Amino acid sequence: MPAETLTPERILEATEEVLRRYGPAKATVVDVARALGVSHGSVYRHFGSKAALREAVTDRWLDQSHAELSAVAATEGPAGPRLHAWLAALFASKRRKAGDDPELFATYMVLAGENSTTVDRHVETMIGQLSGIVTEGVDRGEFAPCDAPSTARAIWDATGRFHDPGYAAEWSTPGIDAAFEAVCELVLRGLRP
Amino acid sequence: MPAETLTPERILEATEEVLRRYGPAKATVVDVARALGVSHGSVYRHFGSKAALREAVTDRWLDQSHAELSAVAATEGPAGPRLHAWLAALFASKRRKAGDDPELFATYMVLAGENSTTVDRHVETMIGQLSGIVTEGVDRGEFAPCDAPSTARAIWDATGRFHDPGYAAEWSTPGIDAAFEAVCELVLRGLRP
């Protein structure tokens, strides 16, 4: 296919497919170019290095749940149920990724380990969304006055078992939903005035 | 040294030393026997198999902080500060183990992966101590009435970042103490009536 139709998004899709097929240790830019039927030079015009390409595909993977979560964060109404819905949507999204395609999930765990800056930026985005919900809860008098960003980080930390990929093996065990609800309840109670 | 002085504790000490020296993949019962100057039959008289020996040494390692934590759990006075002190003592103990001897810590991470039943039992002991503090807090009217065991598990889960060895790399980062205090505060607020 002609190089002019080569968009960054198409390259990233092909990269994911190549990573899935060869694994993170073996996948190369040449494999990606071959999958697209273009020269590796064409790929390098969009992503200057193999590292840049791997970072971009990691970023895309992490971003996949952002839009859905932003929509939950932006809903109207009381902040408490919204916070619960946001945490449940995050857990569901991570669990889906881990359960639907465990090999690809393991691949992205390797890539995440290589791209800690990208992961940190993703976490900051997540905590920013939480912070917005906390601020609204305080403004509405539902939550006690607090420093919203640091409270948001505490909520992120306290719910790690339900979004940190290191716990993925536990996400299909019996009792995990009850455990999630118990932590959510404790956190929501902790926010009360 | 004569076999009659061979106690389980001495075998476990030697096992830890052998694990430290050879790593979990290579350490054998013969190495342990050689370190003690006894036959491997003498070791097998106390621990029936290599797996049993590895399980016992894992158990010993996990138990090392139990006594200290039990003492904190058993102190008199308000349950809130006691819960905070218990969580701080747990974090300090894990952090000390990870920081003082990172190689041995990594070795025990491997052993813990092999002995999940032992680890589960350790976690149940920890949650049992937490549950006792929660019950006393409820009895004293400091904490809201609740199902103490499931609340204790929620506290355990919510504070995982500060005791789960998977997070050991974060325990020396700046801001970790503030993060710990923020989660503790959220949890303690969540227990209020």
Automatic annotation (TrEMBL), chains A, B:
InterPro entries linked to this entry: DNA-bd_HTH_TetR-type_CS, Homeodomain-like_sf, HTH-type_TetR-like_transc_reg, HTH_TetR, Tet_transcr_reg_TetR-rel_C_sf, TetR_C_27
Gene3D superfamilies found in the cross-reference section: Tetracycline Repressor, domain 2
Superkingdom of the organism of origin: Bacteria
UniProt keyword annotation of Transcription regulation present: yes
Pfam families recorded: TetR_C_27, TetR_N
Keywords carried by this UniProt record: DNA-binding, Transcription, Transcription regulation
One term of GO molecular function: transcription cis-regulatory region binding
DNA-binding region, residue intervals: 28-47
Keyword Transcription regulation: yes
Protein name as it appears in the record: TetR family transcriptional regulator
Organism: Streptomyces mashuensis
Domain HTH tetR-type positions: 5-65
